[in-house]
Amino acid sequence: MQKRMSLKDILIANAVPITFFILTFLAVLVAKIPILFLLSEIVRRLSRNTFLVLALIIPVVAGLGLNFAIVLGAMAAQAALFFVVDWGITGLSGILLAIVISSVISIFLGWIAGKTLNRAKGREMITSMILGFFANGVYQLIFLFFVGSLIPFKKTDFLLPQGVGLRNTVDLFGIVDGALNDLLTLNIGFITIYIVPLIFVVGLCVFLTFLLKTKLGQDFKAVGQDMHIARTAGIDVDKTRIIAVILSTVFASIGQVIYLQDIGTINTYNSHEQIGLFSIAALLVGGASVKKANIWNAILGVILFHALFVVAPSAGNRLFGQPQIGEFFREFIAYAVIAFALAMHGWRSRKGK
Amino acid sequence: MVNFGSLREAIKRIDIPTLIIVFFLIGLFILAAATKVSVTTLLSDSIVRIGMNGVLVLAMLPTIRAGIGPNFGLPVGIIGGLLGGLIVMQYQVAGPIGFWIAVGISIVINFVLGWIYAWLLDKVRGQEMMVETYVGYSIVAFMSIMWLVLPFTNPEMIWAIGGKGLRYTLTLQNYFDKALNNFLRFQIGKNFSFPTGLVVFFAGSCYLVWLFFKTRPGLAIDLTGQNELYAISSGVNPKKARRNAVILSTVIAGVGILVYAQSYGFLQLYQAPLFMTFPAVASILIGGASIRRATITNVVLGTILFQTLLTVSLPVLSQVTRGDITEVLRLIVSNGMILYALTRTPKEAS
């Protein structure tokens, strides 16, 4: 169905990024934040968060919708980092080891997640979300009650006073803090660019573009468009979907390692929770939908979403005299963007019938 | 006369997770008897928590029966309920009468909110659960801003420093704290006290909803949930039936949070409404409901099992392990239950 799109169609199709751009622009004006500071923050967040957002693309292409279960990958990454910390493996080798361990855990978790989502066709998103919450319970059980009792952990500084369970924050300083960032940096005036995480991001972009052109990539697309047709075409639908979820989980775990080495501390019981929400919101802000997403959506989304994130507290402070309002506002925006995208998806798929 | 065939049938229909929880619960009680924990105190606490949470679980019933699935947007109704409570506090209506006024206000507010919410859900047929969840999250974040800017002035409600914005938790001590719990409360022995008003209120709510499903609009909801085409051919407007179900669910949620608050003694604002949804969904599922079929029995049974489990596990398990394992247990049990319900084979689920 090739049809030239009118300006109105283009505007409607890109309503979310355009609205968001205007919103961010206004917030920047109100907040009166130095533009260089904003730029440096955005560049840093691009290298920190984009990998995680990119992890969401394959499940969207394969018709599973937004994979809220990427938090499983994030948990795997944190688990791996805890052990790297415990074994005291520092620097780049620590990071690489963390990536390897977390990938292995993620393959297993992704396989379970894929199996689960195959049992819930048509309601994958809510199932993946609940799966994330459920996994969070298991994660807490392991790291709050098993570490130090069933699972040996030598670094007692990181344990709660009774010697069982990890503390709320695990500091990566002196271990793997900035291990990727500091390998190669580029300073342009006030702005510091961390090259290596950006190379990871570009690498994943290239890999995704390449992957979608292969047989497997075509299978993802076919399954995403219509499972029945794909099945009659001889594609093992269930297996393809499981592969999509496994890839997504593994990428998310690597993304979380990159994210945490940049942040420098792990909030043991919170770091992973927000990741799903903010990554998904960023992807949607970039113009993706439940059925369509590409790498440009991810990149644009990270820029727009995080620009608002940086300026919202001071904009709230200027407008209402309370920085808290800005913080609640950006949270509201994250949720509202997802709610809006989901509503649009539901509305469109109803109209299409 | 007991019909053994139907009894066996009933046992066969009990879900495996429900059975596991029943056995776990029995095990906990045995453990409690073996340790020094007082079983009567546990029972007394359990009854309070059952009454406290029951109405919120009841809010799940209408939407499930209408074929929309559990109402993951419970915070929408909760916000209406909180507003009712806040208005009562702002006008300093003291004593139990405040509870009934709050309920009245919340019903009016939730009727409007529920109407809008129902309109939205109708637009997104097929994606309700996801949209509900995120509408719930959005409204909670939005209201967090509102709690900071709405013109409440009662010094007991706003921050002592700065004089602007509502506090995170508002104590109801001078208002309708324990309005239901203390109504006709009686004591048996030293450790067991029975919150008559609370239990009567929960039972009464269940009875009212049960009655509603015997009326014409109620039957229309049932029919729409079972088979939409059949409903249309019997002259039912499914759109209207679903709207009624959503409004009913929202209104019950508002009443439910007020019942919860009066028993707890505090109104909890900001993020708190978010933590009500999943336990409520899990409760009705533990009671044997699926995401397409539910009865009052599921509501009552589920609330009893889940709340007793939480009440009993805290003191009993803390003797065995260190730290508060119940919070983790609640996460695993409630989300595991929802996960089970979502991934049941399509034949059973629909």
TrEMBL record, chain A:
Membrane-topology descriptor: Multi-pass membrane protein
Keywords, alphabetical: Cell membrane, Membrane, Transmembrane, Transmembrane helix
Compartment list: Cell membrane
GO annotation, cellular component aspect: plasma membrane
Molecular function in Gene Ontology: transmembrane transporter activity
Pfam families: BPD_transp_2
InterPro entries: ABC_transp_permease
Annotated TM spans: 12-39, 51-77, 89-113, 125-151, 188-212, 241-259, 271-288, 295-316, 328-347
Protein name (Swiss-Prot/TrEMBL): ABC transporter permease
Organism: Fervidobacterium thailandense
Species lineage: Bacteria, Thermotogati, Thermotogota, Thermotogae, Thermotogales
